[in-house]
Amino acid sequence: MKVSASFLSSNDIPNTLKLLNETDVDYIHVDIMDGKFTENKTMPFSEMKNIYKYTDKRLDVHLMVNDPEKYIPLYASLNTEYITFHIETEKDIEKNIELIKSYSIKAGLAISPETDVKELVPYLPLLDYILVMSVEPGKGGQEFIRSTKEKVDEVRTLINEYSSKALISVDGGINSDTKDYCQNCDILVSGSFIVNNSNYQNQIDLLRK
Ligand code: DX5
Ligand code: ZN
């Protein structure tokens, strides 16, 4: 199981990134919020782009924004493996997937807890990544929604049915207990469980067990 670490809950981002860089974590999960798709807003790109100074890990960018097309070119200029935006943005989904791919970056769609997984079907042939949210998008440290297990199982069935190459990640409230509900995914995204502890590597090892 791969692990992608979110630093959203950190109150010292440079230090968190430096400590994560010393672990074997697979990706740094970069949560971007615009204050419209979500109530909260994260720092602007002019500040966020400085994360390259503190980490040489590949980035897993999660855009919780209404207008992904404005953010994709910016985050495509960093050391980025995946850019994911929400299916709930509804417009220009295919166009935005193609925009991500035009930078040779892997493209993902995220689904919020209330969204039916069947909405992914038209996009399955285009996707490299499906991010299943196990909390409402908007903030770190929320409680994992247990019914996510069935959702992940459904996404796995769709992937097999349509011979899709997409990887599945689960994001929100993941810790050493709730990870057991995500055995059918490929990547666990975890924030507060890792960064609110003094030994990051130990927390990452617990997620991989
Ligand atoms: C929620 C974010 C998640 C979150 C994960 O809106 O997309 O990535 O920060 O953090 P924890 O693990 O604290 O829920
Ligand atoms: Zn996220």
User: How large a portion of the residues is in β-strands, by DSSP E?
Assistant: 15-25%
User: For the record, what CATH class applies?
Assistant: Alpha Beta
What's the quaternary structure here?
single chain
The Rg value, from CA coordinates, equals 16 Å
CATH superfamily grouping: Aldolase class I
Structural class: alpha/beta
SSE order, one letter for each helix or strand: EHEHEHEHEEHEEHH
Low-confidence stretches: none
Bound molecules: D-xylitol-5-phosphate, zinc ion
- What summary fits the major beta sheet? 8 strands, parallel, barrel
Helix content: 25-40%
Terminal CA distance? 9 Å
Shape: globular
Number of domains: 1
CATH architecture classification: Alpha-Beta Barrel
The third-level CATH topology is TIM Barrel
Q: Strand order within the widest sheet?
A: 1-2-3-4-5-6-7-8
Treating each run of at least 4 consecutive H or I residues as one helix, how many helices? 7
Nearest-integer average pLDDT: 97
Provide tags for this entry:
about 210 residues, alpha/beta, TIM Barrel, 8-stranded parallel barrel, 7 helices, binds D-xylitol-5-phosphate, binds zinc ion
Description:
The model has no long low-confidence stretch (mean pLDDT 97). Strand 4 (80-86), helix 4 and strand 5 form a beta-alpha-beta unit. This protein has an 8-stranded parallel barrel, surrounded by 4 helices. The protein is of the alpha/beta class. It has helices at 13-21, 45-48, 68-75, 93-101, 148-161, 192-195, 200-208, and strands at residues 2-6, 27-33, 58-64, 80-86, 106-111, 129-133, 167-171, 187-190. It is globular and about 45 Å long. The protein contains 7 helices and 8 strands. It has a single domain (2-208), classed as Aldolase class I (TIM Barrel, Alpha-Beta Barrel). It binds D-xylitol-5-phosphate and zinc ion. Zinc ion is lined by residues 6, 29, 31, 62, 171, 189.
